[in-house]
Amino acid sequence: PVRAIPNMLYSGILAGVGGFLSFNYAIKVLGPTRASAYFNFNPVLAAAAGVLLLDEPLTIGLVIGGALTLGGVIVVRNNTLIRPSAEKQPQPGTPAPVRSDSRHETLRDSTAR
Asked: Could you say which DSSP state residue 81 is in?
């Protein structure tokens, strides 16, 4: 009915804004590759909510799809090719290494004369 349209718009806007903010926060914290892997949980959570809250039937397709999604996230999470190693990441609170650049040394030597 027409009177339900404001409720649907409110729900859609709330979900859209909440999803947008949480996904951008995940990109900031996890990085784009890992955040997009977790973004694939959206249909799994929607299907689980449908089964639990709306008494929808739990089908074999839902179970297989959820398992494949979970497996994909685990593969991305444990993939060392897309996650930098611990040695390459600076520890919090440590200063960045100072790089000796020959151009600056040459410039400094030439201006000192």
From this structure: T
How do residues 39-58 score in pLDDT, each as one tens digit? 878 888 888 888 888 888 99
Q: Are 67 and 40 in contact (CB under 8 A)?
A: no
Kindly report the pTM of this predicted structure: 0.50
Closest CA to 56 of 64, 46, 66, 65: 46
Question: Would you mind telling me the total number of residues written for the chain in this entry?
Answer: 113
Give the C-alpha separation, 79 to 34, whole Å: 10
| Residues 33, 77: Cα–Cα separation, whole Å | 9
Q: How many CA atoms lie within 13 A of 36 on its CB side?
A: 3
